Known about the structure:
Elements: E1 5-6, E2 34-41, E3 46-54, H1 55-59, E4 65-70, H2 72-79, E5 89-95, E6 106-107, E7 110-111, E8 115-120, H3 140-160, E9 165-169, H4 170-173, H5 175-178, E10 181-182, E11 185-186, E12 199-200, E13 207-209, E14 212-214, E15 216-223, E16 241-248, E17 253-258, H6 266-271, E18 279-280
Antiparallel strand pairs: 1-18, 2-3, 2-5, 3-9, 4-17, 5-8, 5-12, 6-7, 8-15, 10-11, 13-14, 15-16, 16-17
Amino acid sequence: MKSPLKYIVLAAGAAGGMTLTSAQAANPNYAAGDVIMYFQQFGGNQTVMVDLGTGVSFRDATSSHLNIVDLGSTLSSTFGVNWFDDSTLYFGIAGVRSSSSGTTTQVNGDPNRTLYVSQARTGVGTLGLANSAGWSGFGDTDMSTGANGIIGMTNVYNTSFTSLIAVSPTSQSKVDDQNPFLGSNPGTAYGIFPGGVEAEFGSGSFGTLGGVNAEAALDLYRILATTAPVGTVAGDQFTGDYKGSFVIDNTGKVSYVQAVPEPSSAMLLGSTLLLGGFVRRRKAIV
């Protein structure tokens, strides 16, 4: 596993589970457990994918962070200069470390099949609180299905690209396979999320959230398959726990707005201040 580095802002100029065989190249920007943000267009032929870092780093964030990555030039060249007003453009987030059903181990507080997935934020709402329905009602089989679906998608990013920001033919990316469109609306994502995990863009601004004049927003949820292993960071089994929101402005800058800590977790989150706050692990960008 790659060591965490201090949080860094990624410039716009960035070039842009399953076991890998020795013949496959691994993306140096990716590690199992990272969350991938992806953009797909209804009727389009290209997909944009970018690694945002570990799900754990967002779970444990002690503050909000602006301008995590700048995707402006990539989104403009791929989907057009007015991509942020395009109602056929969608984006989502997903990540998982392992699809193993073993329940005796955890890594950095996350047991196997801990899913990090988004859901469209339906309005500006209250800063630090979810404004989406959330995810619930899953079972053990669902968690395996979801984990395998996410790994099937992220494995393309990991094995087919070496850049942080990847532009992939839609037929190759598997984003549309795991987030299928039904008409102009996304269908069931990763086999278990009805309505999909993506938000759509459209005419006009979404609103201001966390100081960002956003074009669209996603709420991030962490879903545990088991709470058994010693050292597991607390959460509800089979039910999504809101961790914060991702927003994107019309220049393509992505920011993260931290959730309001639960009273029971205030002491736990406070201890992470010793780690220097938000962490980001990153190897050299190719």
